[in-house]
Amino acid sequence: MASNVLDSVLFRDSFGTPAMRAVFDDRELVRKYVEVEVALAKAQARCGVIPEAAALEIAEKCNADTLDFDLLRHETEIVGYPILPLVHQISKQAGESGGYVHWGATTQDIMDTAVVLQIRDAFALIESDMDKLRATLADLSRRYRDTPMAGRTHLQQALPVTFGYKAAIWLDMFERHAERLAQARPRVLVGEFAGAAGTLASLGDKGLAVQKAMMEELGLNVPTSTWHVARDGFAEAVNLLAVITGSLGKIAYDVMLLAANEFGELYEPFVKGRGASSTMPQKRNPISSELMLACAKGVRQQAGLMLDAMVQDLERATGPWHAEWIAIPESFVLSAGALHQANFMLAGLVVDEAAMKRNLGMTNGLIVAEAVMMGLAPYIGRQDAHDVVYDACRIVNEQGGRLADVLNAMSSVSERLDPQLIEKLTDPANYLGMAPAMVDQVLARYMSRK
């Protein structure tokens, strides 16, 4: 039985995805270790460090899938790292060429580079899920470009916006995240091969050539200097995930709030039984949003751990390096889970335009008091216009009625503004500002990057 939600039979597909778990699966990690060892042997043969025949035999015979995993686990517990036990086994697999396995390398070279390969695979999954999400958000932005709804600040109605404008703000965040991911790849997808203290001393004057050839074999960028204790690349990767899931948490929070009965403007897709309560049959809880928010909080915690792990001692770290083994897999799995929930939820999002219209009118025009103030300001000045409209709003709040009617009854207003103009000014649909134009700008940016 699993001891955490990421591996739990009950919860694992709520907080992650099978594809991302497979990237960070133990067996896949060991395959990556073997892939790095084979690439190292091939690179060294290319550079004349080991015989070509040895590299060919290592590549042909070393196989992660036929290893004794029980023995590997047992010896890893003793040694503290999996590479020495792994080298014991694959050296035997390599037969006569076994003595050339792991030539001139150190444990961290193999482990770090394997993690980089995992991150490369994981980034591809994150990018694919974000592409789906961006397409969905673009569709919502386009479809609801001109659908008025109440914009809210400090949880109170402020000014009218459109739902397309809200969705475009969500989309624009992920346009930036797509840029960040593209920009992070060259910095993060850098392999490591530097030897015991990072100087490549064991390979003499061929160290840098082997390093370059090894990265070519793996399709990774070549480091300009050793990064055994310079962990900004991995920290950037996890903190990028924290930023991405932070945006997912913001979307989730919006949807949860607007799904409350008192708003009733948005609902997650209906699936029979989903979000049901064990005691309240009427409930339809926003499960995907809740999971997105939980995942975001989890990634944020791991991002902090990665920043803490950057503070490492001298040329090879002690405990901080080990902390990364916790943070990196969990962050990617949680991020994949959050994106999966977001794609499901937003693709089937129920938008209640009637509720948006109803809520927009609930203040009887107060939501566009600014529009009236700005319409009156050219006649009596901005401050006096503010005071007049403020008094009118107080009457509506205390005595009820429509803002338009109260304004028409005030001589300071009716003598300057035609009743039809007041009606127009107090219609929320007429005070959307540049919201639709901003939607167009975001969509144009999306289409240019698509």
Automatic annotation (TrEMBL):
Q: Which segments cross the bilayer? A: none
Which SUPFAM superfamilies does the entry mention? L-aspartase-like
GO MF, one annotated term: lyase activity
Gene3D superfamilies in alphabetical order? Fumarase/aspartase (C-terminal domain), Fumarase/aspartase (Central domain)
User: Which CDD domains does the record cross-reference, listed alphabetically?
Assistant: pCLME (cd01597)
Query: ATP-binding: is it a keyword of this entry?
Result: no
- What are the Adenylosuccinate lyase C-terminal domain coordinates in residue numbering? 364-443
The text of the family note is: Belongs to the class-II fumarase/aspartase family.
What is this protein called in UniProt? Answer: Adenylosuccinate lyase family protein
Q: Which organism is it from?
A: Citrobacter arsenatis
